[in-house]
Write a structure and sequence with these properties.
The chain is mainly α. The chain contains nine helices and no strands. Helix 1 crosses helix 4, helix 5 crosses helix 6 and helix 6 runs antiparallel to helix 7.
């Protein structure tokens, strides 16, 4: 399993937790870096289930390895993604509202909303290839969302991709900057 995909999927989990609770982002991030994999709590169980799901065909990460910790570069990537999305929330939600006009962000399923936020952030800040970002977002939607989520995510991101240069021009100085981690 690609570690970058694992980190993106963990970012979706972190963003989901922040969005659907009143948990402080820094504490949620810290809990992922410092979690004891033997703990019997929902976060650990979700993490282990995700690892098991994502590593079924690939043994790069062993979800039963109690020594596995999210450290170093992996944690920094997770932190950059989550903080970047949180700092750019107004811009990202504005773009979602613009390119999914039938679905205001607060009416979109929490998982789908956060998959979109993360993908648009990666497009605007990380400047990853559009096809890669869309594919990763669709895979996250398949892993976490409803049956209709991948199609919805693909449609919104396709619209964003069509207007990518225009979006960058319109944002101008509002373009997201790399969060300090």
């Amino acid at each position: 399993m690609d570690r970058r995909r694992l980190i993106r999927n963990l970012a979706v989990q972190v963003l989901y937790e922040i969005d659907s609770s009143e948990h402080v982002p820094a504490k949620v991030l810290s809990s992922y870096a410092n979690m004891e994999l033997t703990d019997d709590n929902a976060r650990v169980l979700a993490y282990l289930a995700l690892c098991a799901y994502l590593t079924a065909a690939d043994n790069h990460v062993d979800p039963t390895d109690r020594e596995f910790r999210l450290l170093g570069e992996d944690y920094q990537m997770l932190r950059r993604l989550v903080i970047g999305v949180m700092e750019g929330l107004q811009i990202l939600d504005g773009l979602i509202a613009q390119y999914a006009p039938e679905w205001p962000p607060d009416q979109i399923a929490v998982v789908d909303r956060n998959v979109l936020r993360l993908a648009i952030y990666e497009l605007l800040y990380q400047k990853l290839p559009i096809k890669v970002v869309i594919n990763e977002a669709i895979e996250a939607a398949r892993a976490f969302g409803a049956d209709s989520s991948p199609r919805f995510i693909n449609g919104v991101l396709g619209a964003v991709a069509e207007h990518y240069d225009e979006i960058l021009t319109d944002l101008g100085s509002q373009t997201l900057t790399e969060p300090s981690v």
